[in-house]
Amino acid sequence: MGSPINNCINSSSYTLEYCDSSFKTHEFAGTVFDTQVNFKVLKMDNSIFIWIGLFSKEIFGDLCLAMSTRFQSTPISTQFFGEFTDIVSPTLAKKLAKRLGKQVFLSCNITDNIMLPEVEKLLCEEINKNPHYF
Fold first, then answer.
1. Starting at the edge strand that comes first in sequence, how are the strands of the sheet with 24-32 ordered?
2. Which residue among 55, 73, 75, 93 is least packed, with the fewest CB closer than 10 Å?
3. In the prediction, which pLDDT does 29 show?
4. Average pLDDT of span 102-119
5. How many other C-beta atoms can be found within 10 angstroms of the C-beta atom of residue 75?
6. Model confidence pLDDT, tens digit, residues 61-106
7. pLDDT tens readout for residues 4-52
8. Which long-range contacts (CB under 8 A, 24 or more apart) does 24-33 make?
9. What domains does the chain contain, in order, with CATH numbers?
10. CA 32-36-38 angle, 5° bins
11. How far apart are CA 20 and CA 16, in angstroms?
């Protein structure tokens, strides 16, 4: 067996090569009404995962997916878990899927509806400032 230093492991039946990950991460935060909101982004080849939550309470209580299809002009979405009557995550995920042109997995853990427009504004500003992370 070779070592990772040589970037390759050889065997009589296989060769395993190490390569760079295509996953890229990005984190940023902002303040909305004196409350710190954190954003965590995982950029993949053809999709993106975005987690949004409060600094004081980092939970993963919601997950949805939105993507464009060739059958309609607006993206479709589905919720995997969380409050299924809440349309916040699916709606935001659809907007992001349309804007970014890729599948969007979104976990929005903000329960204060008054904060949501400002949270969306922070996210859009970050996308404009750093599009390479999205």
1. 24-32, 35-43, 47-54, 103-108, 63-67, 76-81
2. 73
3. 96
4. 93
5. 21
6. 899 999 999 998 899 999 998 877 778 889 999 999 999 999 999 9
7. 556 666 667 777 788 888 899 999 999 999 999 999 999 999 999 999 9
8. 24/133, 26/130, 26/133, 28/126, 29/55, 30/119, 30/122, 32/115, 32/118, 32/119, 32/122, 33/114, 33/115, 33/118
9. 24-133 (3.30.230.90)
10. 110
11. 13
The tokens of 85 are what?
A: 């009557």
pTM of the shown model: 0.81
Q: Which amino acid is at 96?
A: L
Unique residue bearing structure tokens 């950029």: 43
Structure-token pair, residue 20: 């760079």
